[in-house]
Amino acid sequence: MKKVVIYCIALLLTMIVSCQKETLDQEETNIAKETENFQKGGNAAGEIGNELVILYPDGTTEAEKILKRAEYNVLDYKTCKCADPNLELWIFEEDKNPSGGGGLEEKKGVIKGDEEIEGTEYNPNIKIYEDVFVDFGGVGITDDGLLKRVSANQGVTVAVLDTGIMYDYPGFTGSFLYNSSQNACTDNGYNELFGWNFVDQDNNPYDNHSGRHGTIVTNFIASQLKAANVNYQILPVKVADRAGNIEYFDALCGFQYAASKPDVNVINMSFGWNHENRELLGRFIENANDVLVVTSAGNKGLDNDVIPHYPSSYESNNILAVAAMAGVNGNSNAHIEGVYTNPQGTSSNSSLASFSNRGIYSVDIAASGEYIPFVYNNETLYVSGTSYSAALTSGYSGALYQSGMSGILLKNTVIENAIYDPNLSEIQYSKHIPD
User: Fold this and answer.
1) DSSP annotation of 193
2) Pseudo-torsion of CA 282, 197, 258, 305, nearest 10°?
3) Of 91, 122, 153, which residue is a domain's last?
4) How many whole angstroms from its chain centre is CA 45?
5) Where are the alpha helices (DSSP H) in 72-184?
6) Do residues 277 and 410 share a domain?
7) Which CATH number characterizes residue 288's domain?
8) In terms of domains, do 255 and 115 share one?
9) pTM, entire model
């Protein structure tokens, strides 16, 4: 029986890979599908690379860290000063003979048994796909961001871990960026202003991603909060580079940075990967009880109960995993996530979008996720993907936030206020947030 199950899973994965190789119809889409990928070490899939994420125990001194780096012949390292001083990225000399023993895998095993190291993991690459559909322009100077910074943080704060934010996007009006003047971080010669860039280690979390993923996500969150007429601010946390690559270490630092802010109430994470259960991020989310973590369920049409998708499949009670509801009917490529200029039909389907992941145990609720209107330069585009379902849910959650709510209480409040629909039986609560 076990062999049959393994064979079925292998067959399913083969079919999925085959489907992903289909060519997109460029006449109907301006952007390739927005999805997730997971690669070890930031290199090709299957490679381990030459980097390890290290977590020291609380109280480890700088002198003790220096000794540990020397003990393991660390060539270079990266710290997480603005987030968690116990986190480091160790970079080793490239292993020119990985099959000959003594490589990174062996180092990881030895370090894992070190009682003076609390945790160690590989540093894989998480991918938000690089897709060009429109160039907003702009050069991304912090002075533009300061013009959008609130004078004082009030109400709800939503942190967005993504490709950053374009301060000069015309849809962002008024003041809405987080004010970091209190307890600001100083690192690498920069002072924190309204967020942080963990890719370049500076204070300019500008969105230079060709698909402007973080800007669109942030726009949907801000629109929900503005429509609810609540006081809010957005904390941009840039963890993805211009090609959409997220180093796992930067995702960890970005999360710890956001979670350490006492006035952050919701963290949006519109990215993910399949299969690999990364222990440290799961532990950090579990410890952030005061924060609701809203995650995208994934865009591969998979059952997350069978093939887990992280971070949405972590079992922490403060995680809200969000699927995408089907939108416009009648388009021949309705299964493809991306951006459309002229989708056909009308919105009338309350089932899940065909590309959306699902799971009666691992996916909580749904939100609009197919052909969501997004306006730029007086033109309406239509975006699709669970990234945007999560964003709408983060905005909705922020609108329901009341002072003092824990992440778990806010999650329960969102679920209680969501709308039941029997067509959504493939997710846990068969509910979606209001349109």
Assistant:
1) S
2) -30
3) 122
4) 20
5) 104-112, 142-147
6) yes
7) 3.40.50.200
8) no
9) 0.86
> DSSP characters for 329-340?
-S-TTTT--SEE
Give rounded-to-5 percent helix, strand, coil for the chain: 25, 25, 50
Say if residue 253 is in the same domain as residue 104. Answer: no
Q: Where do we find the tokens 């009030």?
A: 154
The answer to whether the CB of 433 falls within 8 A of the CB of 396 is yes
Beta-strand runs (E) in 40-123: 51-55, 76-79, 87-91, 119-122
The token duo for 162 is 């993504």
Q: Any bridge partners for residue 366, and if so which?
A: 323, 432
d(C-alpha 223, C-alpha 171), whole Å: 9
Q: At what angle do helices 386-400 and 213-227 cross, to 10 degrees?
A: 30
Domain span holding position 346:
142-432
Q: What is the pLDDT of residues 222-256, one digit of tens each?
A: 999 999 999 999 999 999 998 999 999 999 999 99
Phi-psi region of 331 (alpha: psi -120 to 50; beta: other; left: phi over 0): beta
As a whole number of angstroms, the distance between CA 56 and CA 34 comes to: 35
> What's the chain's Rg over C-alpha atoms?
21
3-state secondary structure of 347: strand
Neighbour-count burial of 208, counting CB atoms closer than 10 A to its CB (0-12 exposed, 13-18 middle, 19+ buried): buried
Task: Look up residue 206 and give its amino acid.
Answer: Y
Residue 395 has φ and ψ, to the nearest 5°, of: -65, -45
Angle between helices 248-260 and 279-287 (to 10 degrees): 10
> What confidence tens digit (pLDDT) does each residue in 260-277 have?
999 999 999 999 998 788
Edge to edge, the sheet with strand 125-128 lists 36-39, 125-128, 245-247
